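Bench log. Compound arrived from synthesis this morning; before running ITC I wanted a structural hypothesis for how adenosine-5'-triphosphate sits in the protein. Inputs:
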Amino acid sequence: AAQTMEQLVSLCKRRGFIFPGSAIYGGLQGTYDYGPLGVELKNNLKLAWWRANVWERDDMEGIDAAILMNKLTWRYSGHEDTFVDPMVDCKACKLRWRADQISGKCPSCGSTELTDPRPFNLMFKTQVGPVPDPESFSYLRPETAQGIFVNFKHVLDSTSRKLPFGIAQIGKAFRNEITPRNFIFRVREFEQMEIEFFVRPGEDERWHEKWVQDRIDWWLSVGLSRQNLEPYHQKKEELAHYAKATVDLLYRFPHGLEELEGIANRTDYDLGSHSRDQGSLGLRARVSPNAHATDKLTWFDPDSKQHVVPFVVEPSAGVDRGVLALLSEAYAEEQVKPAPAERLKPVEEALATFLRSAARNEKLPAAAKDAIVAEGERIAQGLGERLPSIAGLLSLPGADGIEVAKKLRGQVDPVIDEFYRTVLHFKPHLAPIKVAVLPLKKNHAGIVGTAKGIRRTLQATGAMRVVYDDTGAIGKLYRRQDEIGTPFCVTVDFDTLGEGKDAALANTVTVRHRDTMAQERVAVPELEAYLREKMR
Ligand code: ATP
């Protein structure tokens, strides 16, 4: 797993997973753009969720509701009044913070001169229509859930569903977070994968427990490890006003143990809030009187011959937080083979020079100096295994200002390139690219033609994304595919053409496995079935 967020940010930018939004104009805080590999990874995650929660269940329907909704939705959902975070201003440096995320001190300038917290509504307001009428506005949805609630009756009537059943949706949500931070963990524009699961009152607690377990199992199925995933049962005083119980699934992100998904028992609050004639419904939840709704969001129970307002269990996950968790879990820096002493010697010398220079540096604050020297000495003791840690050493505060830092970098980088690899151990069904077809020689017409043909055939199955790459020597190409998490490389060589030493290898290719780096020969006609089997 990744040790620091910097490892992920840097890999994501270098290889084209995720870029900072609007970078050419200095950026826009709290926005990120998914690049060529990021969009594949994110789509694969969403597809895996949709398959498991819609296709493979008998009790679920999907929808895709509009982001813009009638603004009354947000009045009766409670968001206009209560979707707020407590905000404080620093009187010294004028920056603003979320009061519950700082501890009485401005994280930027350290001043304790803060204003009292005041509520800040996180919804983005937007004008709807060309007339600048103060009433013609709505909000960008801050969650996808409300699009499901207002469509409850439509789905019920068009599908003849009975309780229990659920509605699933994946889509964008927007929150004007006071302090977006931690890469794609807290952003202002993100995606959610939400389920509203409707059950008979009285069956809600059992379904809530079941959903918590289902959701944990699903996150394990996409590759998160159990020790990095922690269910947290919210205490009574932490619960949202409408919730009877909430379990957060926390994940050990590089920046700490934080919420990946929330699974709430929301009782009859939502359907009750968006209904007319609320007095006739026997609601358990306390809702605001609704003067505008045109329908009652109820289900007619043919057994009891009564109209019921279903209780709702809501598993709500963040797609971007899911992507971050997958990247973090999959990330590894591994030694491929031990570096011989003569290759380590120059690094050892450069490191010693660097540490002497750090110790003598008068501009460096004592604490920074101690940290650099201590880390440097720790690395020096097991240099061979700890080479990649030099990147961490060089990113300590003040380290890059030491004059021989560049020299150390220059010594260590080529050794790392040769003896280490960065690899993303994605489960195959999530990997952005499933197969890379590589020619052993890029100027050989027979090899190139065969490789391109295999790439086309595999791609035509529609079952996987397959790429052809001839932009380097084979070792370098393997490393590049490791770094982006491609589970299989297929190499075409002279044996494939029947021009090698062993005639029996004609019409076979080398399949190289990302995780073990093991290689095996597979006959070309069997390749598709072989890969499909491994990908299941
Ligand atoms: P937090 O306490 O971290 O702000 P929340 O409890 O407000 O999150 P919910 O309203 O329960 O979050 O939203 C459901 C899910 O949507 C969260 O579990 C998270 O995965 C995702 N999510 C919420 N806010 C953001 C955000 N600003 N950026 C990225 N994902 C988010």
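What the model suggests: The chain has 17 helices and 23 strands. The radius of gyration is 28 Å.
ITC booked for Thursday regardless.
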